[in-house]
Amino acid sequence: MSQNGRRIVLTLLLLLVSQLLGCRQLGLGVKYFLTPCAGNGPERNTDFELQLPPLDLDAFYAELRGLRTDFEFDELGRVQYQGRDYPQYWIRRPAPAGTPRMLIVAGVHGDERAALLAVPRLLAELADEGTTQRHAASPNWDLSVLVPANPVGAAQTSRYNGAGCDLNRDFGSFENPESRAVRTVVERLQPDLVIAPHEGPQDGFFLIATADADPELARRAVAAVAAAGIPLARKSFLGLGLGSPGLSLEGPTVAAGKRALGLGSLGTYMESLGIGTFTTESSWDSEDFEARIDSHVIAIRAVLDSAPPGVASGAGG
C-alpha cells in the first residue's frame, strides 16, 4: 500500500473513531497520527493541560554522567539546535553472553517529563543495589538505555524535535538524526525486548504490549504498579475502554493494521523486526509527579526482576 493509501485508510478509521469520540478527537488524531512534522520547530503542546515541573537539562545530563562508574557509557552523537549541541547517551549494564537484551528508549517526546526522569532514578537504584549486592546472582537481562532520544524536545519541553517532527512517526523513513541513532543502537544490540516510557492524557497508568511481547511480563509490570497504589487507566489516550485496567495487549490484527498503515512508531519498527515492545504510559493529568516517575520505574523493575519466560536466551543474536 502506498503512503497516500495508508493515510486514506487511517483517515477513514479516524472518521469512525470520531463518531464515538467527537470532532476534537478527530482533529487531534490527524495531527498526532497522520502528520509526522506537525510542529513549528520544538513548539510546546497547547492541546492538553500538562502538569510539568521545570527541567534543568544540564543537571539531568550531569546526573547521568555521574553513573559512569557503574555502567558502560557511550555518546552516540550530538544534535545541534540554535548553536548548542545536545548529546544522546547509550548507557549499558552488560550481562553474560546469552542473557536476553533489553533496550529502553526514553525521551522520544520531550514534554513527557516523568518518562524521561524515570531513567536516572532507575539507574541509581540499580547502581545502589550493585554496590550492596556484589555477590548477587547474574541479572536476568542485559540492559541498555538510550537517553534522551529527543534532547532538543527535552530542552524546549516539546513533543517535537528541532525540525518540528514527531520522532515516533519517523521510525519508518528515518529522516531525522535522532531516530537514526535509535536504529543504530537497535542494529548493534539486537534487543529481545524494547521498553519505551511515555506520558499521555489518559486517566491513569497503562502499558501497551505489542503482539511479539510476552503478555505475562506485561501483566507483572502492571500488577506491580497497582500494588504501589498508583491508579491504573481504564481508558486509553484515545478515550477507548481498556479490556483490563492498565493493560492494552495488541494482538496480530492490530500489528497487521499498523504495519499496513506504516505508522512509523517505535513499536511498529520493532514489530517489523519481530521484537516485542512495552510502552509504559503515565498520566499527564496526575498532579502527583513523583508517582508518575515511579510508575515507570516500578513497571520496568518488575520486568528486570523477572526471568523472561517468553524470550529465549540469545534470541536477538
What does this structure look like?
It contains ten helices and eight strands. It is an alpha/beta fold and 317 residues long. It has a single domain, classed as Zn peptidases (Aminopeptidase). Strands 1-2-4-3-5-8-6-7 form an eight-stranded mixed beta sheet, sandwiched between helices. Helix 4 crosses helix 10 and helix 7 packs across helix 10.
Total domain count: 1
First-residue to last-residue Cα separation = 31 Å
Share in β-strands: 15-25%
Radius of gyration using CA atoms only: 19 Å
Report the total helices. Answer: 10
The total beta strand count reads 8
Helix/strand class: alpha/beta
CATH evolutionary superfamily: Zn peptidases
CATH topology: Aminopeptidase
The strand order across the widest sheet is 1-2-4-3-5-8-6-7
Mean pLDDT: 87
The major β-sheet equals: 8 strands, mixed
Shape: globular
Order of helices and strands: HHHEEEHEHHEEHEHHEH
Q: How helical, in percent, are the residues?
A: 25-40%
Classified by CATH, the class is Alpha Beta
**Stretches where pLDDT falls below 50 for ≥5 residues?**
14-21, 312-317
